[in-house]
Amino acid sequence: MIRRIITLLTLLVVISSCKAQGNNIKQNKTLERTTERFDTSTYYMERQGHEYQFEHYLRGKVRQFGGDNGSNYIEYARKDNSLFGTCKEYYNKTGTLKLVGKYYYNRFNAGIWKEYDENGYLIDEYDQDAPYKNYPWEKVEKFVKEELKLDLFDKNVSIRRYVSDKTNIPVWVIHYKVGSNIVSIKINANTGEIIKKGTNPIIK
Q1: Ranges of the chain whose pLDDT falls below 50
Q2: In contact, 144 and 93? CB cutoff 8 Å
Q3: Where are the beta strands (DSSP E) in the chain?
Q4: Residue 118, C-beta contacts closer than 8 angstroms, at least 6 positions apart
């Protein structure tokens, strides 16, 4: 009887330890890692002044800068026919990817941004769109195109967004030029309602 109890206890210990090991292996397998590195040799060889600009067939126009005095490397890339581009930051010492995400060219951060440590392991993710989920970019884009009849690629049209420090309300802000004036529209991203609309002369 005692032997049987000892045998059962031993089996339970072995089974539980196998389960724990299996979970750890699973976690290690699903742990995201990047091997992307900044091409420092090309950057320092080709850059003019403090930055390097070139055209890439997949990423469009690429602008790289940084690296001096121990600063990290920064890269912006966007195609001419796209409203959104990609921003990347690389560690200075290792050249490994630190931060990557999408940005609106006119400009605000959008979508999921990922942060990696110097060994390339994912350490955090940020959903830049979360505060604006009730009135997302798609609704703003439709409003600007269909209601305001504006071209989003027009340099006189600017869109930004922020969460108010005072009210904690997420806000969209649209600026566009009409003659010698600037029209400003603020939209409550929780409700989709226009908070404020005003016109001010352009200060030269």
Answers
A1: 1-29
A2: no
A3: 51-56, 60-66, 73-78, 84-90, 97-104, 109-116, 122-127, 157-163, 170-178, 181-188, 194-201
A4: 91, 93, 94, 96, 98
Contact criterion met (CB below 8 Å) for 172 and 186: yes
pLDDT for res 16: 33
Strand partners, 76: 63, 87
Residue type, 91: Y
Cβ count within 10 A of residue 147? 9
157-202 pLDDT tens trace: 999 999 999 999 999 999 999 999 999 999 999 999 999 999 998 8
The pLDDT value recorded for residue 23 is 34
* 204 token code pair: 């030269």
Q: Kindly state the DSSP code that residue 45 receives in the 8-state scheme.
A: H
Name which of 52, 49, 72 is nearest 61 in CA terms.
52
**In the numeric block, which tokens belong to residue 80?**
């001419």
65 touches 77 (CB < 8 A)? no
